[in-house]
Design brief:
The chain is mostly beta strands. Helices cover 0% and strands 48% of the residues. The strands form two sheets. Strands 2-10-9-4-5-6 form a six-stranded mixed sheet, with no helix packed on it. Strands 1-3-8-7 form a four-stranded antiparallel sheet, with no helix packed on it.
């Protein structure tokens, strides 16, 4: 299971740091990813981090603004989001993923809502 937190309401240009805690060794030995789903749209992959933490990948629209990281000792994945824009408004989810395939390998958690006002 995973539980996401850290969302909220911010103005455009602001920052948020999301956290995702996995239970039962959810992320042990796996890459991890963040996804988001805006109202009325399909869920999309946003970012991924390799198990060792030394490789990351991002959707083009967040490159240079978002940073994904992980603390394997805490079984936690982070997403630092800077210079947030209204189009980043969505519910954000995390899950373990294959490194080179943008799909979740487990059930979705509750997600955390990020709302960016203009």
């Amino acid at each position: 299971q995973v539980v996401e937190s850290g969302g909220g309401l911010v103005q455009a240009g602001g920052s948020l740091r999301l956290s995702c805690v996995g239970s039962g060794g959810t992320f042990t030995g796996y890459s991890a990813g963040w996804f988001r789903q805006a109202s009325g749209k399909e869920r999309e992959w946003v970012a991924a981090v390799h198990y060792g933490g030394f490789r990351t990948d991002y959707i083009e629209s967040v490159k240079g603004r978002f940073i994904i990281s992980r603390d394997n000792a805490k079984n936690t994945i982070y997403l630092q989001m800077n210079n947030l824009q209204p189009e980043d408004t969505a519910v954000y989810y995390c899950q373990r993923v294959p490194w080179d395939v943008h799909r979740a390998l487990g059930p979705w958690g509750p997600g955390t809502q990020v709302t960016v006002s203009s």
